[in-house]
Structures are given as C-alpha cells and as structure tokens.
Amino acid sequence: MDELTGKIVAVTGAGAGMGRATAQLFCSRGATVIAADISGAQNELSKEFGASVLPIDCDVRDEAQVEALIATAVSRFGRLDAMLNVAGFGVPAMLADADMAEYERMLDVDLRGVIHGTKHAIRAMIPNGGGVILNWASVAAFGATRNWGLYSAGKAGVVAITKTAAIEYASVGIRANVIAPGTIVTQAFAQIPRDLETQLMASIPMGRFGRTQEVAELAAFLVSDRATFLSGAVIPIDGAQTAQLA
C-alpha cells in the first residue's frame, strides 16, 4: 500500500507505544516522518528506515521546541502534510488526593503539547494549501472513571481544541480529527496491576485489548486521501467499550 507515499508527516511521542507504531507504519507506506520524542528512542527509527525518518528531540511542553520541530520539517522538505500529536501520559489519582504539580506536568503534555502542535502546524499548512492534524485523546474524554478525572479533563480539552481547529480552518484546506484509544497494549500497559487489567478486560465487549498497530492503521486512513471529507470527527478505537455509554 502506497497511500502515504510522498507525504511529510510529523509525529510526537514517536519513541514508544502508539507514536512509534504509527511512525513505523507511515514509513512503510511511503511517508517521510519527522519523529519527535523526549526520550531519544526515536533515533532507533532512523536505523530501521534510513532517510525516511528525521529524528528530533522535542519536549512538547515547550512551545519553542514544537515550533522549531515544524519549522525544520518545512525547511528540510518544503511543507508539512500532517501533524500527529501523539505524546501523552496519565497519572491516576482521586480528586481529593491530586498532586497539582503532577497534574500540571500531565496537562502540559496532554493538552498544552497538543495545542502547541496544532497551532504551529496550522501556521505551516496554510501557505501550502492545507494539511491534516490528527490529535490523540482517549476514551477517558467521554465519561468519568474513578482515579482518572484529571486525565479525562485534559483529554476532553483535546477533543474541544481539535473540533475548533476543524471548524476554523476548513476553508483553507485543513482537516482536524481525534483518535480516542481505549486500552491499548503498550510498554506503559505492563505497569497496570493485574486486578485492574481484569476489570478493564471485562469492560470491553470484544474481550481483548487493542494493539498499537491497529491504532496506526486508523491514523493512516485519516491522513490519507481516502478521508478527504472527514474532519471534526472523534473516533474511538476501543473494542466497542464506549458504545455501552448511556
């Protein structure tokens, strides 16, 4: 499949998990990927895919670094076709026990980082006739769950920002959508206590957890020219978990 051939795509959180799987899939389908992460693990992608990957150290909490990331894509390749804001993490806490310093660190990545990427991608895309912004939220954005209220608030903000971008910049050829993963098996997933894993499994009608490759496949479709009339959408990929919400 060569649906992404020639596309210039920036991916944050590309060092691990869904970001890494997405960067790998995009490279395998012909895209040039600017792989951004804070860990340094994104450098391994260039060993795997050579010139198809440009690894960059980027802390999405720092607006200047995100702006520089996008400026590098434009200066090296002439344009940016898609911005994938994947970087994010969650810290569980009951509301009365929340550590606000930890909350601010989480929100700086999960929401502020997405705003940085969306803002500067829009600025880069307008002169070139548009592009695609794809932001990662979570099924946690759709409802309340014990211990995850602050995380849910940040992800709900991602949904609001993305829908706004879709409306405000549709006329200049920019599409903006949200991927909302359910429980996906990543490196971080291995840290989940067994009793919580059992509880999560019971909540998924399909009876299994998702794979990073499956999320990457959805991202590939949304960035491709097969989805040119799809904007402002929030798409859960969760084994029908959120279909149970009232």
From the N-terminal CA to the C-terminal CA, the straight-line distance is 38 Å
* Fraction of residues in β-strands: 15-25%
Number of strands: 9
**Order of SSEs:** EHEHEHEHEHEEHEHE
Helix content: 40-55%
- CATH classification, class level: Alpha Beta
**Main beta sheet strand tally, sense and closure:** 7 strands, parallel
Residue ranges: pLDDT <50 for 5 or more in a row? none
CATH topology: Rossmann fold
| CATH homologous superfamily caption | NAD(P)-binding Rossmann-like Domain
Q: How many domains make up the 3D coordinates?
A: 1
Shape label = globular
Largest sheet strand order = 3-2-1-4-5-6-9
Q: In oligomeric terms, what are we looking at?
A: single chain
What is the CA-based Rg, rounded? Answer: 17 Å
Structural class: alpha/beta
